[in-house]
Amino acid sequence: IRKQKLIPKAQYGGRHAVTMLPGGGIGPECMGYVRDIFKYIGAPVDFEIVDIDPTVDNDDDVLYAITTIKRNGVGLKGNIETKSEAAYVTSRNVALRNELDMYAYVLNCKSFPGVETRHKDIDVVIIRQNTEGEYAMLEHESVHGVIESMKVVTASNSERVARFAFEFARKNGRKKVTTVHKANIMKLSDGLFLETSKRLAKEYPDIEHNDMIIDNCCMQLVAKPHQFDVMLMTNLYGSIVSNVVCGLLGGAGLLSGRNYGDHYAVFEPGTRNTGTAIAGKNVANPIAMINASIDMLEHLGHHFHADLLRRAVHKTINVDRIMTPDVGGTASSTDVVNAIIGNIGLNH
Ligand code: NAI
Questions:
Q1: Atom of ligand 1 nearest to the CA of 251
Q2: Of 251, 258, 261, the residue nearest 323 (C-alpha)
């Protein structure tokens, strides 16, 4: 969005260095598919792979991952498991987003014509505050049997993400921004988030603005999703609504999400889950991670390679309908990847 700051940094001889965080569950196998495809198309990207061991009780791995993203400017990420249930062990995913100050998360939710779903032609963009709100991870037991959990909403982050949403709408030819909140109950925290977006909306008279309470929003989404265009919300609502919309479009295996700050960008599957139960079975849908890699290629300015891959994914899913079981197909993960590679060959 703020182009001058989001220029990717590490480029050597026309090639970009990108941090790859395979994470747990199906992350490593999906990253393997991305690497195979990138090799096949000759994408000018060199991955710096950082494995984070979730069983180790220190933050050395995650600090190293943060250092490499700061050096490279860009990351491609699976979901890192948070194994320990001890309260002092925080989510490494959250730590990474916070340390890199990636305050805006963007999920483009566009229907795949080849995937059978109740609603057709959904085209919604979710923009989520990504670094505070309900994810402050400040919980404590004030007296025995009483847990308090802090939700932190700041004027500065509310303004940054609201501006991001309106700028995104304007630059992408979108017509409306809907702020999703629970300001009727959380009058101060969500109240601040809502009031900030209302104030900023006045600077964007060309973009319609409305707001909706989160409860009603979920009902409206599953019943009449076409009324939404760009949706702006706090962190936890963003996670829940992202999963609702991914569900409407075919589940966890299709969409990709983008984390942005003023300096760094990290690309990942849209629902951010690990898929641990299906790991190693050759059934995981590889499309979400491949779509994340396409977003990353676009961000790096490798439009030719992004386009080549996007067209091959489109043909595989929407025309040939070669899909994994989660979206109604019978193909294995590797069948889908091989079909994509075959379709790239046809396009070349
Ligand atoms: P999960 O990993 O069990 O996935 C939910 C469902 O989607 C499962 O049925 C899984 O098999 C399926 N699925 C996921 N990716 C798929 C793919 N590529 N292809 C086909 N099917 C796929 O999700 P759960 O239980 O929500 O979370 C597991 C871990 O992920 C937890 O550690 C959680 O903290 C973390 N996580 C989940 C998030 C979410 O939004 N669901 C967000 C952030 C973290």
A1: 7
A2: 251
* 273 CA to centre of ligand 1 in angstroms: 3
* Dist. CA 240 → ligand 1 center (Å): 12
| C-alpha count within 13 angstroms, C-beta hemisphere, residue 74 | 25
Alpha carbon distances (Å) from 175 to 124, 125, 221, 279, 299? 11, 12, 18, 40, 23
Indicate the range of 6-15, 23-32, 137-146, 186-195 predicted with least confidence: 6-15
Mean pLDDT of the chain: 93
Give me the amino acid identity at 87: A
277 CB within 6 A, ligand 1: yes
Q: What does DSSP say about strands 208-213 and 176-181: parallel, antiparallel, or unpaired?
A: parallel
The contacts of residue 299 (CB under 8 Å, 6+ apart) are 6, 8, 74, 258, 265, 267
What pLDDT score does 346 carry?
54
Q: What is the pLDDT of residues 300-332, one digit of tens each?
A: 999 999 999 999 999 999 999 999 999 999 999
How many Å lie between the centroid of ligand 1 and the Cα of residue 52? 18
pTM of the entire structure?
A: 0.94
CA 37 from centroid of its chain's CA atoms: 21
With a 6 A CB cut-off, is 79 part of the ligand 1 pocket? yes
Q: What is the pLDDT of residues 262-306, one digit of tens each?
A: 999 999 999 988 999 999 999 999 999 999 999 999 999 999 999
pLDDT of 6 reads 54
Q: Could you give phi then psi for residue 44, rounded to 5 degrees?
A: -80, 65
Both tokens of 123, joined, read: 């085209």
ipTM of predicted assembly, 2 dp: 0.92
Q: Is 284 in the pocket of ligand 1 (CB under 6 A)?
A: yes
Residue with tokens 């060959």: 345
Burial 22-49 (b: 16+ CB within 10 A, else e): bbbbbbebbbbbbbebbebbebbbebbe
Residue nearest to atom 40 of ligand 1 (CA): 271
Query: CA–CA separation, 19 vs 223, rounded Å?
Result: 40
